[in-house]
């Protein structure tokens, strides 16, 4: 059993702690947060035995894996410190706030001989894993195109502390884009070329408490993605629009099309339109984890460490997603195509997979 120390006890930590409690291969043994009372409250809620500072967490020999749920701007710093302390790391997305920081995390993991994993792990859920099998089995023929979009008017309408969504590492592309990009890379393989446009439509936002939030990052991003396998995708992420379907993901092939579930979810409905057809047909889910399973990627990483095989929600996958996002920003700024480095396409999960 891997002993997990949680760094960062914000809103998403409740979901992770609830899900991880159902996996026998991991045990959360400590909670840390800059706000010690918040850490104490989370530990009490989920019977975690120790509350400590992040520094104490990293120094604790009883911690095997650090679950890094700190704000995006601290992801790289905390992960590198944990790796240098001899811990494996699993962290929330984005992988880092820049390509340079991401490279430092990868280098630290290699130097320490430790694993680094990263959300999102929703691509390991029943919905997108079933879709992966359909693509691999040729249900839609050769993939030729994909469309993906996330459209809303920003998280300040529901989040209790939304400021970080509009600072470095935030914005819709690095906040929500990883769900869509990770799903697309899992389905279609790495991205070889990016063209994009991005802007911040509004210079300031207002929280529910009435506080003004200065916008420091693009809040509407549109891109064209050329995949190494030949398919061409379009991606739009926005915090600037009021109407429209919030989540869309469709893959088009030479012999049909797949309508896919929201990639921020583990289950959902998959629909298949066959070539020449006129109606969508629902496709039964073939894999497990249709329910909320945030933390599945961490548990799968622990299994992979024990088995000596690559894990699926890997730092290499997350870095490629970050690289693609950075290329989109750079393309918008420079007015030309950008080419990310080589990426990885993780193996599908076995249909009967359960964490050890």
Provide a descriptive summary of the structure in words:
- α4 packs parallel to α5, α5 (99-112) packs antiparallel against α10 and α6 (126-136) packs parallel to α8 (177-188).
- The chain is built from ten helices and 16 strands.
- Helices cover 30% and strands 24% of the residues.
- The radius of gyration is 20 Å and the shape is globular.
- α4 (75-84) links the parallel β4 (65-68) and β5 (88-91).
- Strands 8-11-12-7-13-14-15-16 form an eight-stranded mixed sheet. A six-stranded parallel sheet has the order 3-2-1-4-5-6, sandwiched between helices. Strands 9-10 form a two-stranded antiparallel ribbon.
- The mean pLDDT is 96.
- By secondary structure, it is of the alpha/beta class.
**First-last Cα distance:** 9 Å
Number of strands: 16
Tally of separate helices: 10
Order of helices and strands: EHEHEHEHEHEHEHHEEEEEEEEEHH
Most strands sheet: 8 strands, mixed
Q: Approximately what portion of the residues adopt beta-strand conformation? A: 15-25%
> Oligomeric state of the chains?
single chain
On the 0 to 100 scale, the average pLDDT is: 96
Gyration radius over CA: 20 Å
Strand-helix topology:
Elements: E1 2-7, H1 13-20, E2 26-32, H2 36-45, E3 50-52, H3 54-59, E4 65-68, H4 75-84, E5 88-91, H5 99-112, E6 116-118, H6 126-136, E7 143-151, H7 171-175, H8 177-188, E8 191-199, E9 204-206, E10 212-214, E11 220-227, E12 232-238, E13 247-253, E14 256-259, E15 270-274, E16 281-283, H9 296-307, H10 315-334
Parallel strand pairs: 1-2, 1-4, 2-3, 4-5, 5-6, 7-12
Antiparallel strand pairs: 7-13, 8-11, 9-10, 11-12, 13-14, 14-15, 15-16
């Amino acid at each position: 059993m891997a002993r997990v120390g949680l760094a960062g006890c914000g809103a998403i930590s409740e979901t992770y702690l609830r899900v991880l409690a159902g996996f026998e291969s991991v045990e959360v043994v400590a909670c840390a947060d800059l706000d010690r009372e918040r850490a104490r409250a989370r530990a009490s809620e989920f019977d975690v035995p120790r509350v400590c500072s992040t520094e104490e967490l990293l120094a604790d020999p009883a911690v095997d894996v650090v679950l890094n749920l700190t704000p995006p701007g601290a992801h790289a710093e905390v992960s590198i410190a944990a790796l240098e302390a001899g811990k494996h790391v699993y962290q929330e997305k984005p992988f880092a706030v820049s390509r340079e920081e991401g490279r430092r995390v990868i280098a630290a993991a290699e130097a320490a001989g430790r694993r680094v994993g990263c959300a999102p792990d929703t691509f390991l859920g029943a919905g997108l894993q079933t879709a992966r099998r359909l693509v691999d089995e040729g249900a839609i023929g050769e993939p030729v195109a994909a469309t993906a979009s996330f459209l809303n008017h920003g998280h300040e309408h529901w989040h209790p502390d939304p400021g970080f969504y509009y600072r470095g590492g935030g914005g819709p592309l690095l906040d929500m884009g990883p769900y869509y990009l990770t799903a697309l890379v899992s389905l279609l393989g790495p991205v070889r070329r990016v063209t994009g446009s991005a802007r911040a439509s509004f210079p300031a936002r207002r929280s529910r408490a009435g506080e003004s939030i200065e916008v420091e990052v693009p809040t509407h991003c549109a891109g064209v993605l050329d995949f190494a396998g030949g398919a061409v995708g379009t991606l739009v992420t926005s915090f600037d629009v009021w109407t429209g379907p919030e989540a869309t993901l469709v893959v088009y092939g030479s012999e049909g099309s797949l309508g896919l579930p929201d990639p921020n979810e583990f289950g959902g409905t998959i629909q298949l339109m066959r070539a020449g057809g006129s109606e969508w047909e629902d496709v039964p889910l073939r894999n497990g984890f249709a329910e909320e399973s945030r933390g599945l990627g961490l548990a799968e990483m622990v299994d992979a460490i024990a088995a000596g095989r690559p894990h699926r929600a890997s730092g290499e996958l997350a870095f490629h997603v970050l690289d693609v996002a950075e290329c989109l920003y750079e393309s918008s700024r420079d007015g030309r195509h950008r080419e990310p480095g080589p990426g990885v396409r993780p193996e599908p999960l076995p249909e009967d997979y359960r964490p050890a």
